[in-house]
Amino acid sequence: MTFKPVLDLINAIPRGLIVPPASLFVLIAAGLAMSRRWPRAGRSVAATGLAALAFLSTNAGAGLFVAPLEGMTSALRAPERAGAQAIVVLAAGRIERAPEYEGRDVPDYIALARLRYAAHLQRRTGLPMLVSGGNGSSGVEPDAADRVYPKADAMAAALREDFGVPVKWIEGRSRDTAENASCSAALLRPEGIRRILLVTDAMHMPRARDAFERAGFEVVSAPTVFFSNQRQSLAAWVPSAEGMRRSWYAVYELLGIAWYRVRAGGAA
């Protein structure tokens, strides 16, 4: 029995509507619409959505999702004794046409945190490095002024120019974490590389590790950017954009882990 039609239907739902805050705004709107016919039930639904929106906009509220996700991994100790053959660092976002860099695409602050840690690991281990991330131009080649470069190119430039670290492989075709793994494998397998240090955010690591293990790698997790072990103050209960960003990121990753597992089972 195959679940492909169901999986295709789920995959067609815009991801932005599934995770907060968009999903909570949908809930609030649904409650307001319900209140015309069922006033008490509709107001309860809308109030629940509003309360969840406020709670998940705090760092403390986000921690309910962040802590168990980050608990699936741990900081790497003694990387030079891990027995790895290469470092693989995954892309995040980018800033397109940064004017202070002569209009080049550059890694965003999330990607820079990963690159900084990857550079730290490279200096400690001396291992060759692969950067992975696509989403560049496709189809007809655009004009140079309009060209969007793969994220991996911007990452490699930052590592070489800003961190003084060499990059041996640039994987610029992947569109998601699963393709990060498969496309990286296509580059590293011919080199006989099986055991890698995998660098990404702590929240992204469980899903990334699973994808790379499915691609045939022995993965030594090298996560960075931990939030769950930070000290909490009263300010952690004040709604903020950062609180919602953490909630969005954590829920996205938890749903992504579930989706990868369901998709793997459905394809069997």
Task: Give a description of the structure.
This protein has 268 residues and is of the alpha/beta class. It has 2 domains: 4-70 and 239-267, no CATH class; 79-224, HUPs (Rossmann fold), CATH 3.40.50. Helices cover 48% and strands 13% of the residues. The protein has 9 helices and 7 strands, in the order H-H-H-H-E-E-E-H-E-H-E-H-E-H-E-H. The strands form 2 sheets. Strands 5-4-1-6-7 form a 5-stranded parallel sheet. Helix 8 links the parallel strand 6 (195-201) and strand 7. Helix 2 (22-34) packs antiparallel against helix 3 (39-56), helix 4 packs parallel to helix 9 and helix 7 (177-188) crosses helix 8 (205-214). The radius of gyration is 21 Å and the shape is elongated.
Number of strands: 7
Average pLDDT, rounded to a whole number, is: 90
Helix content: 40-55%
> Can you identify the CATH superfamily of the largest domain?
HUPs
Based on CA inertia axes, which overall geometry fits? elongated
Strand content: 5-15%
Instruction: Provide a count of the helices.
Output: 9
Structural class by helix and strand composition = alpha/beta
| Rounded radius of gyration (Å) | 21 Å
How is the biggest beta sheet arranged?
Answer: 5 strands, parallel
Domain tally: 2
Please name the CATH topology of the largest domain: Rossmann fold
SSE sequence, one letter per element: HHHHEEEHEHEHEHEH
CA(first)-CA(last) distance: 9 Å
CATH class of the largest domain: Alpha Beta
Unreliable residue runs: 1-10, 138-145
The CATH architecture assignment of the largest domain turns out to be 3-Layer(aba) Sandwich
Which strand order spans the largest sheet, edge to edge or round the barrel?
5-4-1-6-7
